[in-house]
Amino acid sequence: MKKIIFFLFAVCTSFAQNDLGSWNILNINMKINSKWSAFTEGQIRSLSFYDNFHYQELKVGVSYKIKTNFSVTTGIGDYNTYSEGGNFVRPMQNNEIRTWVQANLKNPFDYIIFEHRYRAEQRFTSNGYRNRFRYRLSAVVPLQGKKIEPKTFYLSAWNEIFFTDNEPFFERNRLFIGGGYEFSESFAVQTGYIHQFDYKINDETGRAFFNIALLYSFDLKKKEAHDFHPSTND
């Protein structure tokens, strides 16, 4: 545990010196039965290292597992982007209510878990209505054994591209490289580096962020098998 704390402190110090932003996530997932689950997630982001907070979101949703490695998700959320130059400075650049539907496909390959995520978003913003489409490819690799279970470190990486139905169509690319530790069947911490590139987008500038996520997972039917997979619904 001391080594983990020291490592996180060293990473945070390094990021602070480079004036990276922060990207903070709290995700709570509740497994209702073998098919249905519900989740809620909150995020706050800053353009400097835990300073100049400019973004916050809160969302809820449900997922349905069609097969072992295939599920569908829908949700709704409130997303707010503030002006730069301080902490939650008004006026807002964008105030948004967003709904979405997505498909999740896992491809386990030996001890590596690949996941494809396809999402279609309906964005009701203060700047008008917009559609957006996202595709994310992720991989998770346990560092001890061949599966992620309590007391396991893991590596995680993903890349996501964003498109719209209006020219120039391509909107954003987002890359994450990091890892995490599963403390128990119901709690894990994930941290890493996010790099975001934007193309002519005005609701959030492309930046580099230090990311930390607290992931809680509860099984409302404790007799069923636990199926924890580190992920957020960003």
Task: Give your account of this protein's structure.
The chain has 234 residues and is mostly beta strands. It has a single domain, classed as Beta Barrel (Porin), CATH 2.40.160.40. It contains one helix and eleven strands, in the order αβββββββββββ. An eleven-stranded mixed β-barrel has the order 1-2-3-4-5-6-7-8-9-10-11. The longest helix is centred in the first third of the chain and has 16 residues, at 2-17. The protein starts with a helix and ends in a 15-residue tail after the last strand. The mean pLDDT is 89.
Range of strand content: over 45%
At CATH level 2, the architecture is Beta Barrel
Number of helices: 1
The major pleated sheet works out as:
11 strands, mixed, barrel
By CATH reckoning, the class would read: Mainly Beta
Radius of gyration, whole Å: 18 Å
Please tell me what the overall shape is.
globular
Number of individual domains:
1
- Identify low-pLDDT runs: none
What's the β-strand tally? Answer: 11
Work out the helicity level: under 10%
Q: Mean pLDDT, rounded to whole units?
A: 89
Q: What is the SS-derived class?
A: mainly beta
CATH fold call: Porin
What is the CATH homology-level superfamily? Answer: monomeric porin ompg
SSE string, helix = H, strand = E?
A: HEEEEEEEEEEE
- How are strands sequenced across the largest beta sheet? 1-2-3-4-5-6-7-8-9-10-11
The rounded distance between the terminal residues' Cα atoms is 28 Å
